[in-house]
Write a structure and sequence with these properties.
453 residues; mainly beta; Jelly Rolls; 2 domains; eight-stranded antiparallel beta barrel; eight-stranded antiparallel sheet; 3 helices; rod-shaped
């Protein structure tokens, strides 16, 4: 899980209005009562505790005797903040100074993340949270979001946030000064909800409940703001509330694709309703197996409607053999001809897997845009050797203005290529996003327990 970054009690001055100027705060120094090292307090009066850089003891600066709250003498270099304490940077059109640094981790796993406490004497406190290369700018809020009972959603204003993770987070490392008495080992119960690019977080300890809202920030923006010259950590995977342009594109493309599909389907239904689907001619003709017959001419028939397609269907009693027809559709008035060839094949048998078959005893062809008028067919037939069925004849059917679906499905295919590609890319992005969530909507993807704040 990703931490919200509040790290403590409700922040002071979260009304949204700037504080009245108090003048430039005076830096105060004193000796650590645990190890004697010099400790610098950047914002006396605003901070309640400070961590000694030397022995990492947490000191109560509201007590004139600088009481040691906790002792942490291990001089470890395991954590080194990428933004040094005292660094100033401009985010959201305001200048912030980094005054505190916390590392928190999930109680049930080794998953951890970093939190930087920012301070501006006019605007109060904010947090920067860094989780495996993903950054969030965090502020606490006074509004209490609605956790929708029986669902995995929370609502704040007009926005709905989907639950991403729940868990218990623990402070494992501290550095700098804070507006509350931070203690290594302190824990909070937390729930994170996401609606990219925002994350809504709930934290509860023995004393209070704190809600915060985080906004995703690109690492390069952080680097530019705080003049970070060393390489930033490479972002691993997709952040919980990281904006995904491909997902946003899919939402737009999906809408237009559905509109086009509706228009295309309505057009197909309308065209189908206007088709005649009439039988213009039908007759049976004898044939002899293994014999080639030529110069078979049908009687003249009429094709109605100005210009429409013609479907010619051949049916033959083939069985493990074939029947071939070559011919032309001829206009009886001006002699215009439309040549064609068609084969009817059907084979069947059985093997170790059982019965099988291939082909059919009928076959058809389509001639497009044939003008109305009087027509006849010239046919040549040929057949293979197959069972002698009685009668040995084939059926010829001519249909006029039949409903066609090939163009509909062809258009549907081409217009769906890009949406399908974008959908696959979007789904892959979302699967990656939710792979570290305990509430993944992709049940086939194994979830990995991570940390919360």
């Amino acid at each position: 899980m990703v931490g919200s970054g509040t790290g403590g009690p409700q922040l002071p001055n979260e009304s949204g209005e700037p504080d009245k100027p108090t003048g430039k705060p005076r830096v105060k120094s004193f000796s650590c009562t645990a190890c004697g090292a010099s400790v610098t307090l950047r914002y006396p009066g605003a901070s309640m505790s400070v961590v000694c850089d030397s022995c990492h003891s947490v000191i109560d600066v509201t007590d004139e005797n600088y009481t040691i709250l906790t002792k942490y003498y291990a001089k470890t270099g395991a954590y080194k903040p990428i933004i040094p304490l005292g660094t100033r940077g401009k985010l959201k059109d305001r200048t912030w100074e980094v005054i505190g640094y916390i590392v928190r981790s999930d109680v049930k796993s080794s998953y951890s993340w970093e939190e930087f406490l920012l301070f501006n004497p006019y605007y109060g406190y904010r947090w920067l949270v860094q989780d495996h290369g993903h950054w969030n700018f965090v502020r606490t809020i006074k509004e209490k979001p609605d956790e929708i009972a029986g669902t995995s959603w929370a609502q704040l204003g007009e926005k709905r946030y989907k639950v991403f993770n729940r868990g218990q987070a623990e402070v494992t490392y501290v550095l700098g000064e804070f507006y509350w008495r931070v203690v290594v080992g302190s824990r909070v119960y937390a729930t994170d909800y996401i609606c990219p690019p925002e994350m809504l977080s709930y934290e509860k300890d023995d004393n209070e409940v704190v809600w915060s809202i985080a906004e995703y920030v690109q690492a390069r923006v952080i680097a530019d703001a705080f003049k970070i010259t060393i390489p930033m950590q490479y972002a691993i995977g997709v952040g919980p509330n990281q904006p995904a342009p491909i997902t946003q594109s899919w939402q737009t493309i999906k809408l237009w694709w559905m509109v086009f599909l509706a228009v295309l389907t309505c057009a197909q239904i309308a065209l189908a309703g206007m088709c005649l689907n009439a039988t213009a001619f039908q007759s049976n003709y004898p044939f002899t197996p293994n014999t080639k017959a030529t110069d078979l001419t049908t009687q003249v028939f009429t094709l109605e409607k100005g210009s429409a397609n013609v479907k010619i269907v051949f049916e033959a009693p083939v069985d493990n053999s074939w029947f071939y027809v070559g011919g032309e559709l001829v206009n009886d008035t001006d002699g215009t001809s439309y040549p064609f060839e068609q084969t009817v094949e059907f084979y069947s048998g059985s093997d170790s897997d059982g019965y099988w078959s291939e082909g059919a005893k009928s076959s058809s062809l389509l001639i497009s845009a044939v003008p109305a008028g009087k027509y006849y067919l010239n046919l040549d037939t040929e057949s293979g050797d197959y069972k002698d069925l009685t009668p040995n004849s084939f059926t010829l059917t001519v249909q006029r203005d039949v409903t066609m679906y090939a163009n509909y499905f062809l258009c549907l295919f081409f217009v769906s290529v890009m949406p399908a590609f974008v959908w696959m890319m979007s789904r892959q992005t979302e699967v990656s996003r939710w792979s570290n969530s305990d509430f993944s909507p992709y049940p086939s993807i194994p979830t990995v327990s991570s940390s919360s704040s």
